[in-house]
């Protein structure tokens, strides 16, 4: 029996992609050795390279403060404690502010007993270093003197119960006055606290 030819021949699809093949006898590019049917040209290494990591940009860092030669930044802002002689305007403002903040902190932590001591120490140390810091330290000391007198009277008036009202009112008044005065001193403004006689000048 004679085999009949296939009536439906298979034709290649013209839309299918075509790939180059290398016969066994065709040498590879840049090589003198014959190629095998399973050999194919290698893809460039850049095709398979992983993308570089997307690191965030480094955070900005302000340059470090450079104090004058032979002087630290702390000394430049506050000066040397216990030293004598005039102060710079910046040092006067800083110590004028601290002349209210330090007694305020001592006043709060000691329930109104050590604020006067802190204000007196700052006044004695810095009253001759500059007119601005002297005025601020004197105001702070005057506030503490009036506050101490008011608290003493309030302690006596506690026998009549009214002292339990005046005592916290005086404490709040002293705290508010010190905060306002410290803010004014930091801005370089002259300030006289209200309801405070200038006992110390």
Protein structure class: mainly alpha
Q: Report how far apart the termini are.
A: 137 Å
Strand content: under 5%
User: What ranges have pLDDT less than 50 throughout 5 or more consecutive residues?
Assistant: none
Individual helix count = 5
- The portion of residues assigned to helices is 40-55%
| SSE run | HHHHH
- The global form is extended
Kindly state the number of beta strands: 0
How large is the radius of gyration?
Answer: 44 Å
Mean of residue pLDDT?
76
Q: Largest sheet, described in full? A: none
Subcellular location: Membrane
InterPro entries: MamF_MmsF
Keywords: Membrane, Transmembrane, Transmembrane helix
Organism: Nostocoides veronense
Topology:
Elements: H1 73-78, H2 89-109, H3 115-126, H4 131-157, H5 163-186
Helix pairs in contact: 2-3, 2-4, 2-5, 3-4, 4-5
Can you describe what's shown?
There is one protein chain. By secondary structure, the chain is mostly helical. The protein has a domain at 88-186. The protein is built from five helices and no strands. Helix 2 runs antiparallel to helix 5 (163-186) and helix 4 (131-157) packs antiparallel against helix 5. The chain starts with 72 loop residues before the first helix and ends in a 15-residue tail after the last helix. The model has no long low-confidence stretch (mean pLDDT 76). It is a multi-pass membrane protein. The chain crosses the membrane at residues 101-125, 145-176. Keywords: Membrane, Transmembrane, Transmembrane helix. Residues 1-53 are annotated as: Disordered.
């Amino acid at each position: 029996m004679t085999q009949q030819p296939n009536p439906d021949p298979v034709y290649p699809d013209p839309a299918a992609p075509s790939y180059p093949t290398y016969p066994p006898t065709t040498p590879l590019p840049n090589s003198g050795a014959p190629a095998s049917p399973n050999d194919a040209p290698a893809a460039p290494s850049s095709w398979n390279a992983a993308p570089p990591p997307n690191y965030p940009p480094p955070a900005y860092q302000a340059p470090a403060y450079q104090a004058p030669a032979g002087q630290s930044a702390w000394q430049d802002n506050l000066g040397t404690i216990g030293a004598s002689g005039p102060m710079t305007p910046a040092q006067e403002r800083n110590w004028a502010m601290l002349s209210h903040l330090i007694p305020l902190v001592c006043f709060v932590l000691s329930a109104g007993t050590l604020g006067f001591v802190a204000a007196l120490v700052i006044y004695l140390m810095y009253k001759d270093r500059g007119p601005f810091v002297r005025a601020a330290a004197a105001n702070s000391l005057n506030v503490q003197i009036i506050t101490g007198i008011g608290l003493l009277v309030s302690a006596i008036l506690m026998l009549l119960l009214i002292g339990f009202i005046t005592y916290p009112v005086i404490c709040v008044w002293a705290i508010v006055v010190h905060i306002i005065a410290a803010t004014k001193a930091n801005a370089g403004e002259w300030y006289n606290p209200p309801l405070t006689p200038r006992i110390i000048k």
